[in-house]
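Please review this pair:
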Amino acid sequence: MGTVVEAARKEENGSVAQKNPTVVFVLGGPGSGKGTQCANIVEHYGYTHLSAGDLLRAEINSGSENGTMIQNMIKEGKIVPSEVTIKLLQKAMQDNGNDKFLIDGFPRNEENRAAFESVTKITPEVVLFFDCSEEEMERRLLSRNQGRVDDNIETIRKRFKVFLESSLPVIQYYEAKGKVCKIDAAKPINEVFETVKAVFTKKDEKVKNHLCFSL
């Protein structure tokens, strides 16, 4: 994947670094409600919401050579290389007139995180971690689904396991750097957003230090 890395770095050097964007990573388990809160942040604070999963699906649907490669990897059960996802994120940031981005569901693991920072030279302003118990996330996800409940439960619990094993080290890495704001996502949507709003200052939208607490 060296050529992909080189291409991504060349693109970054051309415009993303000069753009000096504000990036907020948004992490949370399946059913934590981060998608709903991203929509609220976009509406109230003018951020552009970038979902790594949506970008990969859009690339597949485009029918491009890159999209075909991504689709084949997914079909074969392989993990899409970090550099491929990063390249899509970079292009989305470059093509957008905004300079404030919510990156949702990425990085999923430590390798993603290290590759993103290495390729883009961007570190997140803050990492929003929507913390919610497995029991509550399971309840929410099952309430959205119909039929084959047992299969759904099995799939959901696998997703929880992957999140815990892969994403928590990322959260712990950024927590050690004082960048994590942990949000109690088990509360009602409106209450969760009140906490989210408190994270951003009106002046420069940097995180208020006293709201960033340890895991």
